[in-house]
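Look at one such:
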Amino acid sequence: MLSDAFGTFVVRMVGIALMFVSTTVTARLLGPAEYGIYSAALALAMLLAALAPLGSDRILIRNLSSTKCLTETGREIAIAHLCTAIVATLLLSGSLAAWLISSFVFDQQNWARTTWLATVMFIPLTVIYLRQWLAIPIIGSRRAVIPEQTILPIVFTASLLLMAAAGWKLSATIVAATYAIVMGVVWTGSLQTGQIRDVYGAAWAAVPSASRFNIRQQLRDGLPFVSVGIGSVLSQSFLPVVVAATCGFEKTAFFVLAYPFASLAMVPHGAVNLTMIPRCARHFKHGEFVEASHAVRSAATVMVMTGVALSFMIWICSPLLTMLLGTDYSMVHRLLPALLLGVIVDCLTGPTIPVMQTMRMETTYSHALFAFIPIQLCIFYWFGKIAGIEGAAIAYFTSRCLWNIIVFTAIYRQRGLVMLPYLRVTQAFHENPPQLEHSIRSRPKQSLWKNHSVPDVPAAPARAA
Protein backbone atom coordinates (compact mmCIF):
# COMPACT_ATOMS: atom_id res chain seq x y z
CA MET A 1 0.00 0.00 0.00
CA LEU A 2 2.76 2.44 0.97
CA SER A 3 4.78 1.63 -2.15
CA ASP A 4 1.96 2.44 -4.57
CA ALA A 5 0.77 5.34 -2.43
CA PHE A 6 4.28 6.83 -2.28
CA GLY A 7 4.63 6.65 -6.05
CA THR A 8 1.23 8.29 -6.47
CA PHE A 9 2.16 10.86 -3.83
CA VAL A 10 5.32 11.83 -5.72
CA VAL A 11 3.41 12.19 -8.99
CA ARG A 12 0.71 14.26 -7.33
CA MET A 13 3.25 16.47 -5.58
CA VAL A 14 4.83 17.19 -8.95
CA GLY A 15 1.34 17.76 -10.34
CA ILE A 16 0.41 20.10 -7.51
CA ALA A 17 3.58 22.13 -8.06
CA LEU A 18 2.79 22.39 -11.76
CA MET A 19 -0.82 23.25 -10.96
CA PHE A 20 0.31 26.12 -8.74
CA VAL A 21 2.50 27.45 -11.51
CA SER A 22 -0.44 27.18 -13.88
CA THR A 23 -2.84 28.80 -11.39
CA THR A 24 -0.45 31.65 -10.66
CA VAL A 25 0.18 32.35 -14.35
CA THR A 26 -3.54 32.20 -15.17
CA ALA A 27 -4.55 34.44 -12.27
CA ARG A 28 -1.95 37.08 -13.07
CA LEU A 29 -2.75 37.10 -16.78
CA LEU A 30 -6.52 37.35 -16.27
CA GLY A 31 -6.95 39.51 -13.16
CA PRO A 32 -9.50 38.86 -10.34
CA ALA A 33 -12.71 39.50 -12.29
CA GLU A 34 -11.91 37.36 -15.36
CA TYR A 35 -10.24 34.69 -13.25
CA GLY A 36 -13.34 34.51 -11.06
CA ILE A 37 -15.54 33.85 -14.11
CA TYR A 38 -13.14 31.21 -15.44
CA SER A 39 -12.94 29.48 -12.05
CA ALA A 40 -16.72 29.37 -11.65
CA ALA A 41 -17.06 27.94 -15.18
CA LEU A 42 -14.44 25.27 -14.48
CA ALA A 43 -16.22 24.31 -11.25
CA LEU A 44 -19.52 23.94 -13.13
CA ALA A 45 -17.79 21.90 -15.85
CA MET A 46 -16.34 19.58 -13.18
CA LEU A 47 -19.82 19.01 -11.80
CA LEU A 48 -21.19 18.13 -15.25
CA ALA A 49 -18.19 15.86 -15.92
CA ALA A 50 -18.77 14.00 -12.65
CA LEU A 51 -22.49 13.63 -13.42
CA ALA A 52 -22.07 12.48 -17.05
CA PRO A 53 -21.05 8.83 -16.32
CA LEU A 54 -24.14 8.54 -14.06
CA GLY A 55 -22.26 6.19 -11.74
CA SER A 56 -20.99 3.88 -14.48
CA ASP A 57 -17.39 4.99 -13.81
CA ARG A 58 -17.63 3.64 -10.24
CA ILE A 59 -19.14 0.38 -11.46
CA LEU A 60 -16.31 0.19 -14.00
CA ILE A 61 -13.45 0.52 -11.50
CA ARG A 62 -15.07 -2.02 -9.19
CA ASN A 63 -15.48 -4.55 -11.99
CA LEU A 64 -12.03 -4.00 -13.47
CA SER A 65 -10.43 -4.57 -10.05
CA SER A 66 -11.38 -8.25 -10.31
CA THR A 67 -11.52 -8.75 -14.11
CA LYS A 68 -8.33 -9.94 -15.85
CA CYS A 69 -9.64 -11.06 -19.26
CA LEU A 70 -8.96 -8.46 -21.98
CA THR A 71 -12.24 -9.20 -23.77
CA GLU A 72 -14.29 -8.74 -20.60
CA THR A 73 -12.31 -5.60 -19.72
CA GLY A 74 -13.02 -4.13 -23.16
CA ARG A 75 -16.71 -4.95 -22.82
CA GLU A 76 -16.95 -3.20 -19.44
CA ILE A 77 -15.14 -0.12 -20.79
CA ALA A 78 -17.33 0.03 -23.90
CA ILE A 79 -20.55 -0.10 -21.88
CA ALA A 80 -19.30 2.59 -19.49
CA HIS A 81 -18.41 4.91 -22.39
CA LEU A 82 -21.75 4.36 -24.13
CA CYS A 83 -23.63 5.16 -20.91
CA THR A 84 -21.51 8.29 -20.49
CA ALA A 85 -22.13 9.39 -24.08
CA ILE A 86 -25.91 9.15 -23.65
CA VAL A 87 -25.98 11.17 -20.43
CA ALA A 88 -23.39 13.70 -21.69
CA THR A 89 -25.58 14.44 -24.72
CA LEU A 90 -28.52 15.26 -22.46
CA LEU A 91 -26.34 17.42 -20.20
CA LEU A 92 -24.94 19.25 -23.21
CA SER A 93 -28.47 20.10 -24.37
CA GLY A 94 -29.42 21.31 -20.90
CA SER A 95 -26.27 23.42 -20.57
CA LEU A 96 -26.87 25.11 -23.90
CA ALA A 97 -30.48 25.79 -22.91
CA ALA A 98 -29.29 27.39 -19.65
CA TRP A 99 -26.91 29.59 -21.63
CA LEU A 100 -29.71 30.78 -23.93
CA ILE A 101 -32.06 31.49 -21.02
CA SER A 102 -29.39 33.42 -19.09
CA SER A 103 -28.50 35.45 -22.17
CA PHE A 104 -31.88 36.32 -23.65
CA VAL A 105 -34.47 35.85 -20.90
CA PHE A 106 -32.81 37.07 -17.69
CA ASP A 107 -30.04 39.15 -19.32
CA GLN A 108 -27.42 37.84 -16.87
CA GLN A 109 -24.38 38.12 -19.11
CA ASN A 110 -21.77 37.01 -16.55
CA TRP A 111 -23.73 33.89 -15.69
CA ALA A 112 -24.48 33.24 -19.37
CA ARG A 113 -20.78 33.45 -20.10
CA THR A 114 -20.00 31.13 -17.19
CA THR A 115 -22.49 28.56 -18.46
CA TRP A 116 -21.12 28.73 -22.00
CA LEU A 117 -17.51 28.25 -20.85
CA ALA A 118 -18.57 25.30 -18.68
CA THR A 119 -20.23 23.76 -21.74
CA VAL A 120 -17.00 24.10 -23.71
CA MET A 121 -14.90 22.39 -21.03
CA PHE A 122 -17.07 19.62 -19.62
CA ILE A 123 -16.90 17.13 -22.53
CA PRO A 124 -13.06 16.97 -22.52
CA LEU A 125 -13.13 16.78 -18.72
CA THR A 126 -15.56 13.85 -18.89
CA VAL A 127 -13.44 11.69 -21.18
CA ILE A 128 -10.18 12.47 -19.38
CA TYR A 129 -11.72 11.62 -15.99
CA LEU A 130 -13.14 8.37 -17.33
CA ARG A 131 -9.75 7.34 -18.72
CA GLN A 132 -8.15 7.96 -15.32
CA TRP A 133 -10.73 5.86 -13.47
CA LEU A 134 -10.35 2.85 -15.75
CA ALA A 135 -6.55 3.14 -15.72
CA ILE A 136 -6.24 2.83 -11.92
CA PRO A 137 -6.96 -0.93 -11.64
CA ILE A 138 -5.18 -1.69 -14.95
CA ILE A 139 -1.81 0.10 -14.62
CA GLY A 140 -1.84 1.30 -10.99
CA SER A 141 -2.74 4.66 -9.51
CA ARG A 142 0.73 6.18 -9.98
CA ARG A 143 0.87 5.68 -13.74
CA ALA A 144 -2.84 6.38 -14.14
CA VAL A 145 -2.62 9.97 -12.93
CA ILE A 146 0.58 11.01 -14.74
CA PRO A 147 -1.06 12.53 -17.89
CA GLU A 148 -3.54 14.69 -15.95
CA GLN A 149 -1.16 15.59 -13.12
CA THR A 150 1.97 16.48 -15.12
CA ILE A 151 1.55 16.71 -18.88
CA LEU A 152 -1.74 18.65 -18.83
CA PRO A 153 -0.59 21.59 -16.63
CA ILE A 154 2.75 21.83 -18.46
CA VAL A 155 1.16 22.09 -21.90
CA PHE A 156 -1.64 24.38 -20.66
CA THR A 157 0.75 26.81 -18.93
CA ALA A 158 3.12 26.84 -21.88
CA SER A 159 0.22 27.63 -24.22
CA LEU A 160 -0.90 30.60 -22.10
CA LEU A 161 2.63 31.99 -21.87
CA LEU A 162 3.14 31.68 -25.62
CA MET A 163 -0.13 33.51 -26.31
CA ALA A 164 0.78 36.26 -23.83
CA ALA A 165 4.23 36.59 -25.39
CA ALA A 166 2.61 36.90 -28.81
CA GLY A 167 0.64 39.90 -27.58
CA TRP A 168 -2.77 38.30 -27.06
CA LYS A 169 -5.04 39.90 -24.48
CA LEU A 170 -6.23 36.85 -22.61
CA SER A 171 -9.79 36.53 -21.33
CA ALA A 172 -11.72 33.82 -19.54
CA THR A 173 -13.12 32.68 -22.89
CA ILE A 174 -9.70 32.21 -24.49
CA VAL A 175 -8.30 30.42 -21.44
CA ALA A 176 -11.29 28.04 -21.23
CA ALA A 177 -11.05 27.19 -24.93
CA THR A 178 -7.30 26.59 -24.60
CA TYR A 179 -7.84 24.30 -21.62
CA ALA A 180 -10.44 22.27 -23.53
CA ILE A 181 -8.14 21.85 -26.53
CA VAL A 182 -5.16 20.84 -24.37
CA MET A 183 -7.26 18.26 -22.51
CA GLY A 184 -8.28 16.71 -25.82
CA VAL A 185 -4.66 16.53 -26.96
CA VAL A 186 -3.45 14.97 -23.69
CA TRP A 187 -6.29 12.42 -23.70
CA THR A 188 -5.50 11.40 -27.28
CA GLY A 189 -1.81 11.05 -26.47
CA SER A 190 -2.48 8.95 -23.36
CA LEU A 191 -4.21 6.29 -25.49
CA GLN A 192 -1.24 5.62 -27.74
CA THR A 193 0.94 3.43 -25.53
CA GLY A 194 0.91 0.34 -23.33
CA GLN A 195 -2.01 -1.47 -21.79
CA ILE A 196 -4.35 1.51 -22.12
CA ARG A 197 -4.12 1.31 -25.89
CA ASP A 198 -4.92 -2.43 -25.74
CA VAL A 199 -7.97 -2.06 -23.51
CA TYR A 200 -9.34 0.84 -25.56
CA GLY A 201 -8.85 -1.27 -28.67
CA ALA A 202 -10.76 -4.10 -27.02
CA ALA A 203 -13.45 -1.62 -25.98
CA TRP A 204 -13.82 -0.31 -29.53
CA ALA A 205 -14.19 -3.88 -30.80
CA ALA A 206 -16.82 -4.58 -28.10
CA VAL A 207 -19.06 -1.60 -28.98
CA PRO A 208 -21.17 -3.46 -31.60
CA SER A 209 -21.89 -6.28 -29.13
CA ALA A 210 -23.09 -3.93 -26.36
CA SER A 211 -26.85 -4.33 -26.31
CA ARG A 212 -29.45 -1.86 -25.09
CA PHE A 213 -30.14 -4.22 -22.22
CA ASN A 214 -26.49 -4.01 -21.11
CA ILE A 215 -26.55 -0.22 -21.27
CA ARG A 216 -29.84 0.07 -19.38
CA GLN A 217 -28.62 -2.35 -16.73
CA GLN A 218 -25.37 -0.40 -16.29
CA LEU A 219 -27.25 2.87 -15.97
CA ARG A 220 -29.64 1.30 -13.47
CA ASP A 221 -26.81 -0.24 -11.42
CA GLY A 222 -24.87 3.01 -11.49
CA LEU A 223 -27.66 5.21 -10.16
CA PRO A 224 -26.76 4.63 -6.48
CA PHE A 225 -23.23 5.78 -7.33
CA VAL A 226 -24.33 9.09 -8.83
CA SER A 227 -24.08 10.82 -5.49
CA VAL A 228 -20.68 9.18 -4.97
CA GLY A 229 -19.51 10.65 -8.26
CA ILE A 230 -20.84 14.16 -7.72
CA GLY A 231 -20.61 14.25 -3.93
CA SER A 232 -17.02 15.43 -3.62
CA VAL A 233 -17.53 17.83 -6.53
CA LEU A 234 -20.62 19.40 -4.96
CA SER A 235 -19.09 19.56 -1.50
CA GLN A 236 -15.72 20.96 -2.60
CA SER A 237 -15.02 21.66 -6.28
CA PHE A 238 -18.44 23.23 -6.94
CA LEU A 239 -18.00 25.74 -4.11
CA PRO A 240 -16.67 28.56 -6.34
CA VAL A 241 -20.09 28.74 -8.02
CA VAL A 242 -21.77 29.11 -4.61
CA VAL A 243 -19.23 31.75 -3.54
CA ALA A 244 -19.78 33.62 -6.80
CA ALA A 245 -23.53 33.71 -6.18
CA THR A 246 -22.99 34.98 -2.62
CA CYS A 247 -19.90 37.19 -2.75
CA GLY A 248 -19.41 38.03 -6.44
CA PHE A 249 -17.02 36.83 -9.13
CA GLU A 250 -14.04 38.95 -8.04
CA LYS A 251 -14.03 37.59 -4.48
CA THR A 252 -14.53 34.11 -5.89
CA ALA A 253 -11.02 34.44 -7.32
CA PHE A 254 -9.64 34.82 -3.76
CA PHE A 255 -11.37 31.67 -2.54
CA VAL A 256 -10.42 29.70 -5.65
CA LEU A 257 -6.75 30.61 -5.19
CA ALA A 258 -6.68 29.97 -1.42
CA TYR A 259 -8.36 26.58 -1.65
CA PRO A 260 -5.71 24.87 -3.85
CA PHE A 261 -2.94 26.10 -1.55
CA ALA A 262 -4.78 24.66 1.43
CA SER A 263 -5.38 21.47 -0.54
CA LEU A 264 -1.64 20.86 -0.68
CA ALA A 265 -2.10 19.20 2.69
CA MET A 266 -4.61 16.82 1.05
CA VAL A 267 -2.12 15.43 -1.48
CA PRO A 268 -1.21 12.38 0.69
CA HIS A 269 -4.92 11.91 1.38
CA GLY A 270 -5.74 11.69 -2.33
CA ALA A 271 -2.78 9.40 -3.08
CA VAL A 272 -3.70 6.95 -0.32
CA ASN A 273 -7.38 7.04 -1.33
CA LEU A 274 -6.54 5.93 -4.87
CA THR A 275 -4.38 3.10 -3.52
CA MET A 276 -7.05 1.97 -1.06
CA ILE A 277 -9.82 1.47 -3.63
CA PRO A 278 -8.73 -1.98 -4.92
CA ARG A 279 -7.43 -2.98 -1.47
CA CYS A 280 -10.75 -2.27 0.26
CA ALA A 281 -12.62 -4.05 -2.55
CA ARG A 282 -10.52 -7.21 -2.07
CA HIS A 283 -10.82 -7.22 1.72
CA PHE A 284 -14.57 -6.76 1.54
CA LYS A 285 -15.06 -9.45 -1.12
CA HIS A 286 -13.17 -12.01 1.00
CA GLY A 287 -14.76 -10.98 4.31
CA GLU A 288 -11.43 -9.85 5.80
CA PHE A 289 -12.65 -7.48 8.49
CA VAL A 290 -9.45 -7.49 10.57
CA GLU A 291 -7.25 -6.79 7.57
CA ALA A 292 -9.63 -4.06 6.36
CA SER A 293 -9.67 -2.43 9.80
CA HIS A 294 -5.89 -2.38 9.98
CA ALA A 295 -5.61 -1.03 6.42
CA VAL A 296 -8.02 1.88 6.94
CA ARG A 297 -6.56 2.85 10.32
CA SER A 298 -3.03 2.68 8.93
CA ALA A 299 -4.13 4.85 6.02
CA ALA A 300 -5.77 7.35 8.40
CA THR A 301 -2.57 7.53 10.45
CA VAL A 302 -0.47 8.32 7.40
CA MET A 303 -3.02 10.86 6.18
CA VAL A 304 -3.29 12.83 9.41
CA MET A 305 0.47 12.86 10.08
CA THR A 306 1.31 14.21 6.66
CA GLY A 307 -1.76 16.48 6.60
CA VAL A 308 -0.84 18.25 9.85
CA ALA A 309 2.81 18.62 8.85
CA LEU A 310 1.97 20.04 5.43
CA SER A 311 -0.69 22.38 6.88
CA PHE A 312 1.85 23.86 9.27
CA MET A 313 4.36 24.36 6.45
CA ILE A 314 1.74 26.00 4.23
CA TRP A 315 0.73 28.42 6.96
CA ILE A 316 4.37 29.38 7.65
CA CYS A 317 4.98 30.04 3.95
CA SER A 318 1.64 31.77 3.28
CA PRO A 319 3.00 35.38 3.31
CA LEU A 320 4.87 34.50 0.11
CA LEU A 321 1.56 34.15 -1.73
CA THR A 322 1.11 37.89 -2.02
CA MET A 323 4.55 38.14 -3.64
CA LEU A 324 3.66 35.38 -6.11
CA LEU A 325 0.13 36.47 -6.98
CA GLY A 326 0.42 40.24 -6.61
CA THR A 327 -1.17 42.70 -4.20
CA ASP A 328 -4.57 42.30 -5.88
CA TYR A 329 -4.78 38.87 -4.21
CA SER A 330 -3.66 39.79 -0.68
CA MET A 331 -6.95 38.45 0.75
CA VAL A 332 -5.83 34.88 -0.08
CA HIS A 333 -3.49 34.80 2.93
CA ARG A 334 -6.35 35.56 5.36
CA LEU A 335 -8.52 32.69 4.13
CA LEU A 336 -5.95 29.93 4.69
CA PRO A 337 -6.33 29.16 8.46
CA ALA A 338 -9.98 28.08 8.25
CA LEU A 339 -9.38 26.13 5.02
CA LEU A 340 -6.38 24.30 6.49
CA LEU A 341 -8.38 23.28 9.56
CA GLY A 342 -11.04 21.81 7.25
CA VAL A 343 -8.35 19.84 5.41
CA ILE A 344 -7.02 18.38 8.68
CA VAL A 345 -10.53 17.26 9.64
CA ASP A 346 -10.82 15.40 6.31
CA CYS A 347 -7.48 13.67 6.93
CA LEU A 348 -8.49 12.62 10.44
CA THR A 349 -11.14 10.12 9.31
CA GLY A 350 -8.95 8.43 6.70
CA PRO A 351 -10.12 6.78 3.45
CA THR A 352 -13.87 7.10 3.98
CA ILE A 353 -14.81 7.40 0.31
CA PRO A 354 -12.95 4.22 -0.83
CA VAL A 355 -14.59 2.31 2.03
CA MET A 356 -18.09 3.45 1.15
CA GLN A 357 -17.51 3.05 -2.58
CA THR A 358 -16.22 -0.56 -2.39
CA MET A 359 -18.10 -1.96 0.62
CA ARG A 360 -21.67 -1.73 -0.66
CA MET A 361 -22.43 1.52 1.14
CA GLU A 362 -23.29 3.57 -1.93
CA THR A 363 -26.93 3.89 -0.88
CA THR A 364 -25.94 5.15 2.56
CA TYR A 365 -23.49 7.56 0.97
CA SER A 366 -26.19 8.78 -1.39
CA HIS A 367 -28.67 9.42 1.41
CA ALA A 368 -26.03 11.17 3.50
CA LEU A 369 -25.10 13.47 0.63
CA PHE A 370 -28.71 14.32 -0.19
CA ALA A 371 -29.13 15.41 3.42
CA PHE A 372 -25.75 17.14 3.74
CA ILE A 373 -25.40 19.14 0.52
CA PRO A 374 -28.43 21.45 1.10
CA ILE A 375 -27.17 22.05 4.64
CA GLN A 376 -23.71 22.89 3.32
CA LEU A 377 -25.10 25.29 0.72
CA CYS A 378 -27.14 27.03 3.43
CA ILE A 379 -24.05 27.27 5.66
CA PHE A 380 -22.07 28.87 2.84
CA TYR A 381 -24.90 31.22 1.94
CA TRP A 382 -25.49 32.53 5.45
CA PHE A 383 -21.83 32.68 6.48
CA GLY A 384 -21.04 34.47 3.21
CA LYS A 385 -23.85 36.96 3.71
CA ILE A 386 -22.80 37.64 7.31
CA ALA A 387 -19.00 37.75 6.99
CA GLY A 388 -18.25 37.92 3.26
CA ILE A 389 -15.46 35.87 1.75
CA GLU A 390 -13.90 35.17 5.17
CA GLY A 391 -17.26 33.78 6.28
CA ALA A 392 -17.17 31.42 3.30
CA ALA A 393 -13.81 30.08 4.51
CA ILE A 394 -15.25 29.47 8.00
CA ALA A 395 -18.26 27.81 6.39
CA TYR A 396 -15.90 25.37 4.67
CA PHE A 397 -14.36 24.30 7.99
CA THR A 398 -17.78 23.97 9.64
CA SER A 399 -19.21 21.89 6.81
CA ARG A 400 -16.21 19.51 6.72
CA CYS A 401 -16.61 18.85 10.45
CA LEU A 402 -20.30 18.03 9.97
CA TRP A 403 -19.68 15.78 6.97
CA ASN A 404 -16.94 13.72 8.62
CA ILE A 405 -19.07 13.15 11.71
CA ILE A 406 -21.88 11.84 9.49
CA VAL A 407 -19.62 9.51 7.48
CA PHE A 408 -17.68 8.22 10.49
CA THR A 409 -20.91 7.29 12.26
CA ALA A 410 -22.38 5.56 9.19
CA ILE A 411 -19.29 3.42 8.53
CA TYR A 412 -18.98 2.37 12.17
CA ARG A 413 -22.64 1.38 12.43
CA GLN A 414 -22.79 -0.60 9.18
CA ARG A 415 -19.31 -2.07 8.83
CA GLY A 416 -17.86 -1.82 12.34
CA LEU A 417 -14.76 0.03 11.09
CA VAL A 418 -13.29 2.77 13.26
CA MET A 419 -12.16 5.41 10.77
CA LEU A 420 -9.56 7.04 13.01
CA PRO A 421 -5.74 6.96 13.10
CA TYR A 422 -3.81 4.78 15.53
CA LEU A 423 -2.79 6.52 18.75
CA ARG A 424 0.47 4.56 18.57
CA VAL A 425 1.80 5.62 15.21
CA THR A 426 4.15 2.64 14.87
CA GLN A 427 1.16 0.28 14.59
CA ALA A 428 0.36 1.72 11.18
CA PHE A 429 3.65 0.48 9.75
CA HIS A 430 3.31 -3.21 10.69
CA GLU A 431 1.87 -5.71 8.23
CA ASN A 432 -0.07 -7.33 11.09
CA PRO A 433 0.26 -5.89 14.62
CA PRO A 434 0.33 -8.59 17.35
CA GLN A 435 -3.24 -8.08 18.51
CA LEU A 436 -4.53 -8.40 14.94
CA GLU A 437 -2.49 -11.55 14.30
CA HIS A 438 -4.12 -13.10 17.38
CA SER A 439 -7.58 -12.09 16.11
CA ILE A 440 -6.90 -13.61 12.70
CA ARG A 441 -5.82 -16.93 14.22
CA SER A 442 -8.60 -17.12 16.80
CA ARG A 443 -11.70 -16.18 14.73
CA PRO A 444 -13.02 -17.29 11.32
CA LYS A 445 -12.95 -14.57 8.66
CA GLN A 446 -16.63 -14.64 7.71
CA SER A 447 -17.70 -14.00 11.31
CA LEU A 448 -15.64 -10.81 11.50
CA TRP A 449 -17.65 -8.61 9.14
CA LYS A 450 -20.30 -6.68 11.00
CA ASN A 451 -23.77 -6.73 9.42
CA HIS A 452 -22.51 -8.47 6.32
CA SER A 453 -22.49 -12.02 4.98
CA VAL A 454 -19.75 -12.59 2.45
CA PRO A 455 -21.57 -15.17 0.28
CA ASP A 456 -24.25 -12.54 -0.44
CA VAL A 457 -21.78 -10.41 -2.43
CA PRO A 458 -22.03 -11.39 -6.12
CA ALA A 459 -18.92 -11.33 -8.28
CA ALA A 460 -18.87 -8.52 -10.83
CA PRO A 461 -18.61 -10.75 -13.96
CA ALA A 462 -21.66 -12.74 -12.86
CA ARG A 463 -23.64 -9.52 -12.41
CA ALA A 464 -22.61 -8.32 -15.86
CA ALA A 465 -23.58 -11.63 -17.46
